[in-house]
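Hi support team,

I submitted a single chain yesterday and got back a structure, but I'm not sure I'm reading the token output correctly. Could someone confirm the output below corresponds to the sequence I sent? I've pasted both exactly as they appear in my results page.

Thanks,
R.
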Amino acid sequence: MADKLPEEEHPKPAFGWAARDQSGVLSPFKFSRRATGEKDVAFTVLYCGICHSDLHMVKNEWGVTQYPLIPGHEIVGVVTEVGSKVEKFKVGDKVGVGCMVGSCRSCDSCDNNLENYCSKKILTYGAKYYDGTVTYGGYSDNMVADEHFIVRIPNNLPLDAGAPLLCAGITVYSPLRYFGLDKPGMHVGIVGLGGLGHVAVKFARAMGVKVTVISTSPNKKQEALENLGADSFLVSRDQDQMQAAMGTLDGIIDTVSAVHPLLPLVALLKSHGKLVLVGAPEKPLELPVFPLITGRKTVGGSCFGGIKETQEMIDFAAKHNITADIEVIPMDYVNTAMERVLKADVRYRFVIDVGKTLKPDV
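Hi R., thanks for writing in. Yes, this is the structure output for that exact sequence:
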């Protein structure tokens, strides 16, 4: 039988799969959502993507996890209830929730539609909500969130293949825009051809950018060039290839979440080039300073995106038919999927068919 949280925490019954300890193993779990408030939107979860950060969190690799943990921040579904003061959504709308469900709404970041950089932002799972309760993610049958943090999903965007855009998509779209790497004719490198990297290639190509995929895996060359439409491919372990490409890139989006050397990537940049890190390795990376100084190069980072930009990204994806390449799985396959994520054995994103396969343990 599934465990159950105390009834007094939240009044809306819910069911999902949760991790209980650092083993990271997920299992059926009964809990409760808060009742739908006046500015809240409640929706049935139909699909939820599995992000690499879910793996870090269930195993407490970042040291911030509170158990029980219900992961999932690439959540899409259909609205079932709206609060009395909700203005933007109605029952039956297709909607999504990404990486956050709250922020202070009054700081400079929030005032500039950058809620993702608010020091008081509330993450979709594993965080404390305003009322002191813990937030739970999309590996569950329903979701409740303030309408401000809900994204509308266009009708022509498939819900299953569109779900990963709410994290993977916005995480690469935002730095392409912010760092000015979205101009037609620019030459941008994408490091890593995984969940984030493959959608980065698609967005950059749709923006008119010349794309070079940089990977440790030579066997991904055909995929990058023929299936994803990249212009060129570099094997990062091939010294001759890397040497020949030195000083050719205007910018690089580095999606790798494992420890890896930065110096070879910095060398690929033109003077004034920008290396932007969006992957989150669990250990510090070594950063050589001299090549930055001599080329006036920049190394920066970027976190997903604000709600306005996330909606912009979803609309852009719908216009240009950009979706994630996915493998749809049943809920009870999630632990095997997590093991495969660790091995990078997925092309390129797992999406849980929550609506059809999450069966309450009664």
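A quick pointer for reading it: The radius of gyration is 20 Å. Let us know if anything else looks off.

Best,
Support desk
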